[in-house]
Specification:
The protein is 40% helix and 12% strand. The chain is built from 26 helices and 22 strands. The chain has 792 residues and is α/β, with parallel strands linked by helices. The strands form six sheets. Strands 5-4-3-6-7-9-8-10-11 form a nine-stranded mixed β-sheet, with helices on both faces. α6 packs antiparallel against α11 and α13 packs across α14. The protein is globular and about 85 Å long.
Length: 792
């Protein structure tokens, strides 16, 4: 082997050794595949560029018989080759900054190990604990080493407390967060054992191309992905993709010393992106970091944001605890900030209009049942006279036609506040199916500029697909959007040259003629826009094909697990009659929610607790946004018997039957309302999972539907559930539940496969068929790229 880095050369024998195959196999690859890298020079034996070989091997998966014990479906010869030669992982080579696939592969075993160690902890709790320990490892290496040597009983606890106390100076309230998160660690496993497990995992990242300084941020992104994927939190807990956060930060271009604020910061993704962007402009690294300001709506998000900011070395003042910025709007914030950016809840019906004085709104009272314009105006209210903001909004915020909404949008446009509206590509936010736009707002006066820039980025390529099936904004799309905005902002009024098919400007007068609707598509030329760029179509098709391959591998693994579990289930898994049965009411406490007159008034206090209603049970999960909040003390006093515990099941007793969800640890202490029924297993042999799946069977759904009464709205009584006959679980209940959960996973993956195939079909049809119908052409001028044909 000769050379280093990009010039590293390898022989066929060295390729074979690194990839774990025979030399004959390498010779066969070179003979059969025309795109196999060519030899460099005329040396004997032939030598190949290692980087080119790695890229080629990244596209060739290892078939099942040749996989090693630590390799899974989807592993490539590129993985082996890169690890053997210590080359950067594939995703880092592609993006220049990412360590996603490598870090996920190395951190996933740790996550599973912690899930076993903390089996009673929720996903959110595990996320907080791992982030807190990762931060302490990064912030205090000597203390971390001492912690791992604390073998004496109690010494590890004392060392951990000393490390936590030493960190409170780095960020307001950080000590409180560390104490809350790590102070509740269970006695087993011991802290030194946890530290050992974490070190074993994190210590492998440098070998996978992750610099030591980036381990904390890499762990942060992994934890964010796990938290979002498993909890699927709606509303203010939407996780903003790193590519979207970077786009928002680059549009605003915050500078060192500017005051940055996010009124609904969630887990802090936008704040972190803005802080890192401002950091790049510091003249001296010795200059103190500027403090980031924000408010988080939930306690979990508040703690996560504090920890991730600390890991990135960014001081963050997020207040003393979670807070709703719309309801708790201190006058001290007015006109305080240079840069505001946020991703608030979309179309929020219960945003707290009754708690806000009407004279607060500069451009008019927002609708009481839609918080979009309230968030936009709140962001404007905290900007100083030269401040600027970017707000992520649903597309509907720019299109709704109610007079009240038109009037507010119109006043904002007339005042010159709205500078740009950007329609983003679909599926950047998997938690929300609605279209998403960016509103760029600016209080700075711009003489003679009587226009708004519109960018329709919906057709720009989204690049690679993330492991959790969310699309990511490609570097090319990012450059197009930011470049268009910066060019427009720097152009003299009326002299900006639009990007064909992507941007357009419109005068205030023209916008007014369209009822102040701010959808970019309305202002672009009214001609069909086709994906005719060969390179763009090729990139998108290959990205979709890569996702399709990953999904196929996942569904293949899941189906293999199903076959194995089916064998383990045995013949008696369906023999319910031989196991005995009883009425549900004898083994489960079934309770109907309180009567309407027991409802407590809404509370605006930060420690209020939710009172669940039927709409809060969505897709068999409990929502966390737009909840009816009540006073905690009053709930404990007046609704004590209606408070939920982990393992309960809440069941909607009105409308279509089957709406149910298991209560997780995060929901402990929440109350359930009138139209819900709470089921609490009391028999040792009855688990919440078994009862959940039993209630979802067609037989039970049919019985309960027939027992529901009512002419207009069908309702189910608690007694009907109590009289329901339930068979005892089989001896292999755990395998049965795992099997059913795996079926749900296969169903979800299969649905996504259908979506990807449909998008591929539409992409090829637009290019090959619709492209021929463009004005001025009679046939497709060039054949569809062979690379795309091969991809699909």
């Amino acid at each position: 082997m000769t050379g280093e880095g990009a010039e590293q050369l390898v022989t066929r024998e060295e390729i074979a050794s690194a990839a774990g195959v025979t030399t004959q196999a390498v010779s066969n690859w070179a003979r059969r595949y025309t795109n196999f890298p060519h030899p460099v020079g005329r040396s004997s034996p032939q030598r190949f560029a290692a980087v080119e070989v790695a890229i080629w091997l990244d596209t060739h998966t290892i078939d099942r018989p040749r996989r090693r014990p630590d390799e899974t479906s989807g592993s490539t010869f590129g993985h082996r080759f890169r690890e053997s030669l210590r080359l950067p992982p594939a995703d880092a080579a592609a993006s220049g900054a990412g360590h996603g696939a490598a870090s996920r592969r190395l951190l996933s075993p740790l996550w599973q190990q912690l899930s076993t160690m903390w089996d009673s902890a929720s996903t959110g709790t595990r996320a907080e604990r791992l982030l807190a320990l990762a931060y302490l490892r990064q912030a205090d290496p000597e203390g971390w080493a001492a912690l791992r040597r604390s073998y004496a009983q109690g010494a590890d606890i004392a060392q951990l407390e000393a490390m936590m106390k030493a960190q409170h100076v780095h960020s307001a309230g950080l000590w409180d967060v560390l104490r809350d998160v790590l102070g509740s660690l269970p006695p087993e496993p011991r802290i030194l054992h946890l530290a050992g497990a974490i070190e074993n995992a994190l210590g492998t990242l440098p070998g996978a191309g992750v610099p030591e300084a980036e381990i904390g941020p890499v762990v942060s992104q992994y934890v964010l992905d796990q938290d979002a994927e498993e909890r699927r939190r709606p509303g203010s807990d939407f996780v903003t993709r790193p590519t979207v956060a970077r786009l928002v930060a680059d549009l605003l271009a915050p500078r060192p010393g500017e005051r940055i604020y996010d009124p609904c910061c969630g887990s802090g993704e936008l704040l972190i992106a803005a802080g890192l962007r401002a950091r790049t402009g510091r003249a001296e690294t010795s200059e103190p970091e500027q403090v980031l300001h924000g408010q988080a709506r939930g306690a979990h998000s508040w703690r996560i944001a504090k920890l991730i900011a600390a890991i990135h070395g960014l001081p963050a003042d997020l207040g003393p605890g979670p807070e709703n910025a719309l309801r708790h709007h201190g006058t001290g914030l007015l006109g305080s900030f240079d840069v505001v950016l946020t991703n608030p809840p979309f179309n929020q019906k219960d945003w707290g209009a009754e708690f806000v004085r009407s004279d607060r709104w500069e451009f008019g009272q927002p609708p009481r049942d839609d918080g979009n314009l309230a968030w936009l105006q709140h962001c404007l209210s905290v900007l100083d006279e030269r401040g600027r903001a970017t707000v992520i909004m649903p597309t509907s915020a720019a299109a709704k036609t109610k007079p009240q909404q038109q009037r507010i949008r119109g006043d904002m446009v007339d005042a010159g506040i709205v500078r740009c509206v950007i329609a983003l590509p679909a599926k950047l936010f998997s938690e929300s199916p609605v279209g998403v736009s960016l509103w760029v707002l600016d209080r700075r006066t711009r003489p003679c500029r009587d226009e708004v820039l519109f960018i329709d980025a919906t057709r720009l390529e989204t690049g690679a697909v993330a492991h959790d099936r969310r699309h990511q904004l490609s570097d090319a799309a990012h450059a197009t959007i930011v470049g268009a905005y910066q060019t427009w902002a720097a152009s003299p009024p009326g002299q900006y040259v639009p990007v064909d098919g992507v941007t357009a400007t419109a005068t205030v007068q023209k916008i007014g003629q369209l009822d102040y609707r701010l959808e970019p598509r309305l202002y672009l030329p009214m001609v069909p826009q086709f994906a005719s760029a060969t390179e763009s179509v090729t990139v998108t098709a290959h990205a979709l094909h890569e996702e399709l391959e990953e999904l196929n591998h996942r569904v293949a693994d899941a189906r293999e697990t199903l076959r194995r579990l089916l064998t383990e289930l045995g013949p008696d898994s369906s023999a319910a009659d031989s196991r005995g049965s009883c009425e549900l009411g004898t083994i489960c406490d079934v309770k109907t929610g309180p009567s309407g007159r027991k409802y407590l008034p809404r509370s605006r206090e930060s420690d209020a607790v939710p009172l669940l209603r039927p709409p809060d049970i969505n897709k068999h999960r409990i929502a966390t946004d737009d909840l009816y909040m009540i006073d905690r003390a009053a709930a404990r006093k007046d609704l004590a018997q209606y408070l939920l515990q982990p393992g309960d099941i809440v069941y909607s007793r009105i409308g279509d039957s089957g709406h149910r969800a298991i209560v997780e640890p995060d929901h402990e202490g929440w109350a359930f309302g009138t139209a819900l029924i709470r089921l609490r297993p009391t028999a040792d042999w009855l688990s919440a999972d078994y009862l959940y799946y039993y209630l979802g069977t067609h037989l039970v759904q049919d019985i309960l539907a027939r027992r529901s009464v009512g002419a207009t709205v069908r309702a189910l009584s608690a007694d009907s559930l109590r009289r329901l006959t339930i068979p005892r679980p089989p001896h292999n209940t755990d395998a049965l539940i795992t099997y059913l959960a795996k079926c749900d996973e296969v169903s979800e993956i299969s649905q996504r496969i259908g979506e990807v195939v449909t998008r591929l079909r539409d992409l090829l049809a637009d290019h090959s068929i619709a492209g021929a119908a463009r004005p001025g052409t009679s046939v497709v001028s060039e054949p569809f790229p062979a690379t795309v044909r091969n991809a699909v």
